[in-house]
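Researcher: Please translate sequence to structure tokens.
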Amino acid sequence: MCYKIKLNKEDKIIEVFSFGIETSESLSNQLDEIVHLSEKEKIFNVLIDTINQEKFSSLACVFKFMSSLPTFLNYAIYFENGQQTFDEIEFGAMVSNNRGINVKNFRSREKAINHLKELNY
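Model: Translation complete:
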């Protein structure tokens, strides 16, 4: 497992912390947990923190995951410039947005959280 999921009830955000090497299996498990938690808690905003993520197993893995995100959730992806997965994250957001999925990338964790909090109102 290359992730940890935390429920931030105060800000109404599901926080996902990715680390290591993401595989199709870990991303699929991650998505199942996010959807289950969202439905259970009625929280529809997801922050994906990729700061400690080393890489994805393949670009196909990114494409499959980002194109299968549920449209009823809002996503903010936090990453830093120069991060090894920068290009994959940019590609993934483009794939999602082309499919009508609300994904926005941020280089500031605070801005990502504020964006999601604004969507709660």
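Researcher: Any highlights?
Model: Residues 24-41 form the longest helix (18 residues).
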